[in-house]
Write a structure and sequence with these properties.
Structural class: alpha+beta
Order of helices and strands: EHHHHHHEEEHEEH
Strand content: 15-25%
């Protein structure tokens, strides 16, 4: 099956256009259908999602700088660059009236120092502790479409460590506790890489620490076969119930 969105690679494709990617379900959307967040306040979930989105954006900018052979940016410079790119703030890095980047501004105000953002600062210091291990960045925050199974997913990064030629798929996480849903998510991303011809040796999640401590990498390679089967089962169930809803 041809992947016609993005670069049109076969059998997999990097998503960037309209084509199949426009109507294909996303990995997080598929798994999210079955995730149980009962008992967690909606405000807590929203804040966690906002924090995760901001940290991912800053991490992506930092990794792109490293891939380009430039020194990694500090989080403040990365935040300024991100808001300039997204139109969410002005060139000085001040948050706009709208957008989730105001979370960082709120943290600054709460700390009584508009020049500090302790929540993001800790996660970014944690990222930089890991970044020193990375020799080369293969890909950063690219969306792929699976030519056989017809789903899409945005992969945070594939990197190579110093002294280790095997490429590693890394999915950044900000929650303090691991989630069982991370395993099928990573498996789905590995399948996307395989379909697109992008080599991956190991794969897992990198839990960044809000305290700035060294992050924890959870390698899910040993359970990949089971996690892959679980994701494909979820994908089939997702499509089944989506079709039922459309038949009403």
């Amino acid at each position: 099956m041809q992947g016609t969105c993005g670069h049109g690679e076969s059998p997999g494709a990097r998503a960037g256009g309209t084509g199949p990617c426009g109507g294909s379900p996303r990995v997080t959307e598929i798994i999210g259908r079955f995730a149980d967040f009962a008992g967690i306040s909606p405000d807590v979930l929203e804040r966690a999602a906002t924090r995760g989105t901001l940290v991912h954006a800053l991490a992506a900018i930092t990794l792109r700088e490293k891939r380009g052979g430039m020194p990694p940016l500090g989080w403040r410079a990365a935040l300024t660059a991100f808001m300039a790119e997204s139109g969410a703030g002005d060139a000085a890095g001040r948050p706009g009236a709208e957008g989730w980047e105001t979370l960082c501004y709120a943290e600054r105000v709460a700390a009584g120092d508009p020049e500090e953002c302790p929540l993001v600062d800790g996660f970014m210091r944690s990222l930089h502790r890991w970044l020193g291990l990375v020799e080369r960045v293969e890909t950063v925050e690219e969306r792929f479409w699976h030519g056989t199974y017809g789903y899409t997913g945005q992969i945070d990064a594939v990197v190579r460590y110093r002294g280790d030629p095997s490429p590693v798929l890394v999915d950044f996480k900000t929650p303090a506790s691991p989630s069982p849903y991370w395993r099928p998510q990573v498996a789905a991303y590995v399948m996307l890489c395989e379909d697109a011809g992008l080599e991956v040796g190991r794969a897992g999640t990198l839990q960044l620490r809000r305290t700035g401590a060294a992050p924890a990498f959870r390698d899910y390679s040993a359970t990949h076969r089971r996690d892959r089967a679980g994701f494909l089962t979820a994908l089939e169930a997702y499509r089944y119930f989506t079709d039922l809803k459309g038949e009403r």
